[in-house]
Amino acid sequence: MKFEAVTIKDIARALGLSTSTVSRALRDSYEISQETKQLVLDCAEKLNYQPNPIALSLKEKRSRSIGVVVCEVANNFFSQIINGIESISYSKGYNVIISQSHESYEREVIDLRYLSSRSVDGLLISVSTETNDISHLKALHERGLPIVFFDRITEEIKTHSVIVDNFKGAYEATEHLVKNGYRRIAAIANSEFLNITSERLAGYKEALLTNGITPSDTYIKHCFYGGMVFSEIEDAVNRLFTLKQKPDAIFTTSDKLTTGLLKTLKRRGLRVPDDIAVVGFSNTDIAELLNPSLTVVRQPAYEIGQAATELLLQLIESKRPIKQFEKRVLTPQLMIGDSSAPKKKK
C-alpha cells in the first residue's frame, strides 16, 4: 500500500471546515478565531500532520536544507564532522542531506546534480581524490549557491573554508618519532593532488630537515584512493620493505591509511613498535584500546563540522552579498600511545 501523508484537506474533512480556513489557522492568521485555531491544531496533532517541505520551499523560495558531500560516511573522521554539522544545522531549523562520493569525480558530479535539484540552500563539501576539474562546483557557485569547503579544499572558488593545521600535525608527529630514536621514517600519503597531502608532507619533510635528516622520495608512497582500496596500502608497504634501508617507522596521512597500515603490518607478522613504529592521522575512538595503543594526530572533526556549518549559514542568511571570506584553521592534537615508543637498541 502506498504511503500518503496527511494533508490540509484531511484536517478540513475531519473538522467540516474549508481548506482555506484550516490553512489560515495553521498560519496563525488574525482572520481566524483562537477557538478555531486551537481546534485545527489539536486535529493536526492527532492526525500527525506535517507541513509539506516542498510546498513550503516553493512558497518561501528556501528549502531549509543543507547538502553535504564527503568521500565516505564510514570514515571516523567524516562521521564525526557530520555530527558537528547536524548539531548546528538542526538547532537552526535546517535539515541535512548527506551524499558520498566514494572518492569518485563522476559520483561527486552526480551527487551535486541531485542536491541542486532538491534546491538545497547551501552546500558543504570535501572534494574527492579524483576531483581536479571543479567546473561543476564553479557552475553552482556562479548561479548563487552558497558553498563552504572543509578538509579537502580548493582555492579556485572564493568562499569560506575550514581545515586543520595539517603542517603542524605532521611536523609534530614526525618530530616525535625522531626524538624517540627513529631515523628512517617513511610516509604513506593520500593522492598528491589533494591539499591535505601536500600540507602534511611539507610538515613531515620540514621536521626531518630540522632534525638533521634529509628527506628521501623513496620513503614516500602515495595511495591515490587514500586507503579505500586496501591493495594500494599493501603495495605501498611492500615497496617500502624491498628497500635496502628499510624504514624503522611509518607516518600515515589519513584515517583509512592508518588502519590499513596496521592491518598490513599484522598480515606480514611485523610487531609494532618492536619491528616498526607507527604514527598516523586518525580519529578512531579506539586508539587507546588497541594493543599497542596507537599514537595519532587527532583532528577536531566535530568542531570542523560546526565551524563549516556556521560559515555556510552566514552565507545563506546574510541580507547582503559577502565579499570577505575566511579560511578557518583549527589545531590538531598529537595523542601519544605505545605504537611510537622509544626505539630499542639492538
UniProtKB/TrEMBL annotation:
<dbReference type="GO" id="GO:0003700">
    <property type="term" value="F:DNA-binding transcription factor activity"/>
</dbReference>
<dbReference type="InterPro" id="IPR046335">
    <property type="entry name" value="LacI/GalR-like_sensor"/>
</dbReference>
<keyword id="KW-0238">DNA-binding</keyword>
<dbReference type="Pfam" id="PF13377">
    <property type="entry name" value="Peripla_BP_3"/>
</dbReference>
<dbReference type="InterPro" id="IPR028082">
    <property type="entry name" value="Peripla_BP_I"/>
</dbReference>
<protein>
    <submittedName>
        <fullName>LacI family transcriptional regulator</fullName>
    </submittedName>
</protein>
<keyword id="KW-0804">Transcription</keyword>
<feature type="domain" description="HTH lacI-type">
    <location>
        <begin position="6"/>
        <end position="60"/>
    </location>
</feature>
<dbReference type="GO" id="GO:0000976">
    <property type="term" value="F:transcription cis-regulatory region binding"/>
</dbReference>
<dbReference type="InterPro" id="IPR000843">
    <property type="entry name" value="HTH_LacI"/>
</dbReference>
<dbReference type="Pfam" id="PF00356">
    <property type="entry name" value="LacI"/>
</dbReference>
<dbReference type="InterPro" id="IPR010982">
    <property type="entry name" value="Lambda_DNA-bd_dom_sf"/>
</dbReference>
<keyword id="KW-0805">Transcription regulation</keyword>
